[in-house]
Amino acid sequence: MPTDFILLGAAKSGLYLGDFLFILISFLILVALVGHFAWKPVADMMQKRSDKISNDIDNAEKSRQDAEKLDKQRQDALKNSQNDANKIIESAKDNGEKQRQTIITNAQQEAQTLRETAQKDIAQERQDALDSARNDVADISVEIATKIIGKQLNAADQKDLIDSYIEGLGKSNGNK
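Structure for ATP synthase subunit b, as requested:
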């Protein structure tokens, strides 16, 4: 009954079964052709676009991870360089302190050597002055003795006279 209704409706509107089948077959052929020539390329294009977007997202995620790794490496390198700089500064301070101590020690040793040399020079000068004074006293004593005694003393006599004079001075100083 429903097919009769369709056929009756088609007969009233002027459509016949042959026309209907022709239109139906043409429509199915058109759908098949559109599906084969238009739908497949559009679907392939959409799949490629979907794949590209998926790959772009994956690449973006990978790039983000790489950027995070690089940032971490940069921060680690920065920390290491700061630690290295601190070590270099500490080493330079230590070396500077050692050099300062060495310079101070060398200066103190040099000053001590100069003091000792000066003291030796002073002692030598004092001894030279005493020897000179002794010789001057001996010469003056000989001149005085020569004038008093009236005769010339030789070197051995002068030495004996001076030694006895010095002994006499030592005894007179010891008695006091």
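Residues 2-175 form one domain.
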